[in-house]
Amino acid sequence: MTLILSNDDIEKLLSVRECIDVLEMAYRELAEGIGVNRTRSDSIVVTSKPDTLYSLKSMDGIVPGLGVGAVRINSDLVTWPSSDDGKVRRVKVPSAPGARYVGLVLLFSSETGEPLAIFPDGVMQRIRVGATNGLGLKYLAREDARSVGIIGSGWQAGTQLMAACAMRKIDKISCFSPNKTNRENFSREMTATLDIEVVPVDSAEAAVKGADIIMCATSSIDPVVYEKWVTPGMHVSTIKMFEAEPAVIKRADVVVVHHHGGKIRVLGKGAVTPELEEGGKSRGGAKKIDFKSFPTLPQLIVGETGSRTSADQVTCFLNNVGLGYQFAAAGAVAYAKAKAQGRGHELPTDWFTEDVHP
User: In this predicted structure, what is the pLDDT of residue 261?
Assistant: First the structure.
């Protein structure tokens, strides 16, 4: 039987800490060349809606040690509005019936080829992003790091803080995002979740001032953290490569990226995304940095590259690209627990297999 799981199921089955642990194990296989990951692919075309593009995205990976492979597929309508502070953001529009998004993960057995489970990607992708940055923090931040300044109060920000608290004994958190109501609501919610006071502040600079760890969790494709804010001993963490201005990356003593896999973009006529435009000064500046020259998180985990060597060094982890490999690893945990707990809905596997040679 093939298991159908919901976002609610995934939330109950997979914790940030469990995701950190399974990714750490799986990344060892990836570094050793046992596990494999395919470069993310985005096919993008114009639509009939003004300033809106259609993107069909896919990524996949196989973790032999867990006996699984996974494919993540997203079918998105995407826009690039400017926020009140002038930053350009990448925003998906919920355009499916019922104002919903479309993202699916298909989990397969690498031993039999059969489809094990199908579930939405939303909750899992949030958890795996937080867990990935948590691993970067584990290997790069000072052992005595206690305070976090986070920029962002949206969907990704919560798991970033959960991961930080799982890796270090955090006792002070400040939060900024441009929308005052959002940051205040987020701070209240995360204070209750973490049992640590999260203090909303009026500027990004105020959020990171004096913090041991700077965490970015925004939809901005422009920088939100600047070199003049960075002080000795800080760890800077981003969920995309544009959030820290190039001077921050150059300032850091140790820089590690998530992966060198990158992205393949296939653009239909007239389809231009702001990330690819050279006109934006900040984004153009970021392109001058050779991200492939930096070591990757799997290399860091297996000791192929050095970590922090002194308390006053500045370290930086750039979660520059997502991997289908993450969904295979995290999916294996969720699937095993769902089977053990009897969670989800079973459908005949015959519905998804065939008796003719494909």
Answer: 80
